[in-house]
Amino acid sequence: MAGFRLLVGLGNPGSEYENTRHNAGAQWIETLARQSQCSLRTEKKFSGQFGKVYIAGEECYLLIPTTYMNLSGKAVQAVCQFYKIPPEEILVIHDELDIPPGTVKLKRGGGHGGHNGLKDIISKLANNREFGRLRIGIGHPGHASQVANYVLKKAAPDDYTKIEQTIDESLRYVDDIVRGNLNAVMNQLHSFKA
């Protein structure tokens, strides 16, 4: 199975969105960049913060789109075109309402589940859904009408700690994830509970 060359963390730009639930994916990339001593720099042509790292001996690209969440596909498309990266070699890290804080799921392919960032990426990749997703649980507010407000707020301290632990735990497997050994990682990660 192909590994991943482009790791994309979704979020909204600007300090007012820092550490909000919707920025869990961006936070994952920031943590990985710190651990890898990689400095992300703003790249206009990619509409995002961008960096290169070596993971498991492979050159990988890190991207945090600096468009708003619902335009995330623009940045992904730009990097993919520039580096000739097929959708199968993209891993998108994003917040997930359908699983509770402290849990994380990994999969390849699938729909967008109402996530505006994923929706835009799928449309910009000509409806190819075969990219990987690392879904960081943020829990659900209970009613659809509350979702927009909920994802843009900071998580309660207890939940925030769980989200951070989930990020740290999933980053322990980053070599295997990048190599495409998803089943081995799923067995470990899917039983993890912060």
UniProtKB/TrEMBL annotation:
Signal peptide: none annotated. The record marks D95 as: Stabilizes the basic form of H active site to accept a proton. It is an enzyme of class 3 (hydrolase). GO terms for cellular component: cytoplasm. The record marks N12 as: Discriminates between blocked and unblocked aminoacyl-tRNA. Keywords: Cytoplasm, Hydrolase, RNA-binding, tRNA-binding. Its EC number is 3.1.1.29. The keyword Hydrolase applies. GO terms for molecular function: peptidyl-tRNA hydrolase activity; tRNA binding. It catalyses: an N-acyl-L-alpha-aminoacyl-tRNA + H2O = an N-acyl-L-amino acid + a tRNA + H(+). The active site is at H22 (proton acceptor). TRNA binds at Y17, Y68, N70, N116. GO terms for biological process: protein quality control for misfolded or incompletely synthesized proteins; rescue of stalled ribosome. Catalyzes the release of premature peptidyl moieties from peptidyl-tRNA molecules trapped in stalled 50S ribosomal subunits, and thus maintains levels of free tRNAs and 50S ribosomes. Monomer. PANTHER family: PEPTIDYL-TRNA HYDROLASE. Belongs to the PTH family. This is Peptidyl-tRNA hydrolase. It comes from Marinomonas foliarum. The lineage of its organism: Bacteria, Pseudomonadati, Pseudomonadota, Gammaproteobacteria, Oceanospirillales.
